[in-house]
């Protein structure tokens, strides 16, 4: 993936970078050093949709980059985590102080001005050493106390569709993703096809969410587009042996279609 890094598509900080921005174009959703959107080569429709979203939010071409998703035909969860590993490694190699990572089926449920206002408020009031700000999420368990009525501490929130990471947290997140990758490889050896698993990255990061300065934007301003469907789950996923293990053993309830990539 390092072949995708070039001087023309990496924004370098020649001045002290601030997530809070110094002018109108560097606030709200535009507050971050870089934007990576994960997109399968087989989904040009989704690429157009996520690029339109970034255009609507005013994210310049020099700050954003398409990251070709890793395709794993028999284990989409494995392809998902490998794609996110590539994204965090790329942000680290680029020297970005923070990065916004998006999957190509993410969409905002609020208007651009509302999104910008919400994120500007969050960044003004969150501690400067926040670890992750999760925008896209589902099945969330959040702390009751709100930060400026726009964000809450996260205990567990699924979906890796849109989240920002601070640079000091890259390595911890990579460690968690690498463990998810290892466990998903073991799942792949057990089943011909993996639909249900307790080791998907947004299940695996639960412990990290509970122990870190991980915040979720709440009330929600975005989500995975339900109209896009899922590239991981099949229509009758509940009947697959990898899903039957959930019903036959005392395991957490499996992820439903649309809760991952």
TrEMBL record:
Supply the name of the protein.
Glycosyltransferase family 25 protein
């Amino acid at each position: 993936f390092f072949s995708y890094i070039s001087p023309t598509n990496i924004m370098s900080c020649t001045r002290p970078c601030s997530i809070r921005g110094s002018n109108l174009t560097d606030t709200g959703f535009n507050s971050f050093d870089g934007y990576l959107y994960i997109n399968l080569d087989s989904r040009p429709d989704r690429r157009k949709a996520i690029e339109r979203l970034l255009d609507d939010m005013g994210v310049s071409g020099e700050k954003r980059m398409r990251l070709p998703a890793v395709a794993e035909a028999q284990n989409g969860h494995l392809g998902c985590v490998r794609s996110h590993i590539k994204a965090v490694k790329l942000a680290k190699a680029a020297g970005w102080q923070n990065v916004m990572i998006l999957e190509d089926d993410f969409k905002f449920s609020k208007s651009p001005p509302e999104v910008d206002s919400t994120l500007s408020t969050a960044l003004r009031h969150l501690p400067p050493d926040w670890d992750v700000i999760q925008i896209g999420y589902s099945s969330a368990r959040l702390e009751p106390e709100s930060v400026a009525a726009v964000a809450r501490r996260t205990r567990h929130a699924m979906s890796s569709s849109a989240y920002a990471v601070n640079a000091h947290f890259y390595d911890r997140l990579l460690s968690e993703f690498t463990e998810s990758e290892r466990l998903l490889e073991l799942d792949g050896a057990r089943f011909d096809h993996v639909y249900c698993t307790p080791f998907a990255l947004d299940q695996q990061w639960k412990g990290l969410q509970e122990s870190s300065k991980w915040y979720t934007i709440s009330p929600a301003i975005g989500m995975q587009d339900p109209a896009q469907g899922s590239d991981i789950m099949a229509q009758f996923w509940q009947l697959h042996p990898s899903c039957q293990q959930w019903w036959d053993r005392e395991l957490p309830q499996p992820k439903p279609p649309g809760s991952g990539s």
